[in-house]
Every structure is written in C-alpha cells, then in structure tokens.
C-alpha cells in the first residue's frame, strides 16, 4: 500500500475520537518515511527514522490492542535507525524473524527469536542494524500498570521504578515460560489467538497474565523480593497499616487513624514508611485508592458509570485534582479510560497527527 493509498484508507474509516485508535483491518503498509514515523508515533511515542540504505523504502505494521497492553509488529524492507526520546512506558521486544540491535540508556541487546529485552522509561531508545528479514515485536506496557501488577503480587505498593536486566533468553527457563504465555495472546505473525478472540474478558485476563508473567520471568530490582519467602517481614507496626490499607483503603481517612492501628507515634510511623517505601502513609493510601479507581474505570460501563462517581467513591472530593493526578500517573484522563473500557483484543491503527 503506497502513501497515497494509505491516506485513502484513512479517509474510508470512522475515527472514534481525535487521536484515538480506529479499526482498519490488520495490516498497514506505506512507502513514505514520514508517514511511517507518524504510524509509530501514534502507536507508541515520538519516533525519528533515519534511512541507512538508499533505495526504495517500505514499512509495514500490524498492531493489536488488549486491555492495558499494546503489541505491534514492525517490518522495514531496508536498514533504518529508529531513535525514541525517553518515553513514559516500558516495551518488551524481540524479533520473531531476523534480528535488531536495541540500545536503551547504557544497556543494549541484539533481539532475535530467542533473545528479548525490556526497555525501561526515562532513557532514550535506539533500534538499528535490521537484517533483511527482520520483524520486531514490541509490546507496550504503561509504567503505572506494571507497578500496580507488581504491587498486587508483592502485597504492598511499589514506589520506586522497576529496572529490568539486559536481556531475556526465551529458549529456556522462565524465559521459555513467558514465551508460552505470549502465544496465548497471539501467534508469531501477530494474529490474535483463538482463545483471546473468544471474549473481551478472556483477553483482559490474558493481558494481565502477560504482564505478571513478565515480572516473574525477567530479572529486575524487585526479583529477590518476589522469590524470597521473607518478603512479607516488614516491621509489625508498618505491616498492620499496610494490611488495613490493602484490605479496604476507605476504612481509614487520617494520619491519626494510622498511628492508632500501628500502636506507635505518628512520627515513628511516617519515618518507617519512608524507610520502607519512600513515601509517608497518606501518600501510600492515595496510591492504593488511585489504583482501585483505575481498576473500576477500566472495567466500568461508560453508559452507567461516571468519573465523578468513581472519584468520590475512592475519596477524591475534588474532581479536577483527581483528573490531574490520574493523568500524571496513567498518562491519560480518567474519562478516556472509562470510554476505552475493556475492549478485549483487536486490530487497531491510529491516525497520524
């Protein structure tokens, strides 16, 4: 499909919301470098593409959406260099065919069918040295969602960033286990699996399974805690407060409540929370409430549920501040989360801006 035909295809579909995905079959093609850059930017983040080789340029891409998960398959017919300024999300990537050199911050890897990497936020990314048959699979996972999943596994809030190791071997051990989980979502050419097609709820569970499996498979700075039987051994006073917050974050509303639960002074409790989590107990409480609000919006019916009702239910009395805090953490306004909802697994593309 040439650039002219790609533009015609865009005109033939209905855009659901400005800047938001629209359905357009299952494959994109263009021979225009700027349009390819726009495709990648709309799916992931701002990209800059440099053609390394002279000659005809062609780009194709297939994109799949699941709840809080986006998977893209990109292919170039010649070697290019992709530069991505520091984004706000993680990307798991490997090459089902061929190989691509990937650099993020001070880390690097050559991804292939058996070698994968998890690129972390806050550092620039670069993709280069694409072999002739290269196809890059890149799974976008928002930082806040991954931290929420890890928090659920650990039974406490994760405050600091998750820093992954250099590469993951998909041919053995936990890496092979993760590769099997990926195949529950889609096959090696980007087609959604029959299991994922059956129902949006099934795709939702598979998406969460993929995120959790990644956390259990790829080593990171919380891995020791994941596999350490002593991980729950917080100081007893702090553990009591954490248990109460995680069980029902609405049953406490003030710092004084925390001090009573912990049976220690508020000053000692705040010092303990900062030492263990990097934040005071009230900030910990707000993060848990925000995560619960996010979960309700993701699974809510936009014809029945309202953002204001969710905000009030989880203790956010000022709707404007709730919206700003929510967008800062999750990268989108709460109204967009509610509209998008639980759509399951689908082919999408985004109109270039």
Description:
It is a single chain. The protein has 353 residues and is of the alpha+beta class. Helix content is 42%, strand content 20%. It is built from 14 helices and 15 strands. The protein is globular. It has helices at residues 3-11, 33-43, 143-154, 173-185, 194-197, 200-217, 223-226, 236-247, 255-262, 266-277, 281-299, 307-313, 319-330, 334-340; strands at 21-22, 28-30, 48-51, 59-66, 69-76, 80-84, 89-97, 100-104, 107-111, 115-119, 125-128, 135-142, 168-169, 346-347, 349-350. The strands form 3 sheets. Strands 2, 4, 5, 7, 10, 12, 13 and 14 form an 8-stranded antiparallel β-sheet that branches. The protein starts with a helix and ends with a strand.
Question: How is this fold's topology laid out?
Answer:
Blueprint: H1 3-11, E1 21-22, E2 28-30, H2 33-43, E3 48-51, E4 59-66, E5 69-76, E6 80-84, E7 89-97, E8 100-104, E9 107-111, E10 115-119, E11 125-128, E12 135-142, H3 143-154, E13 168-169, H4 173-185, H5 194-197, H6 200-217, H7 223-226, H8 236-247, H9 255-262, H10 266-277, H11 281-299, H12 307-313, H13 319-330, H14 334-340, E14 346-347, E15 349-350
Antiparallel strand pairs: 1-15, 2-4, 3-6, 4-5, 4-14, 5-12, 6-11, 7-10, 7-12, 8-9, 8-11, 10-13
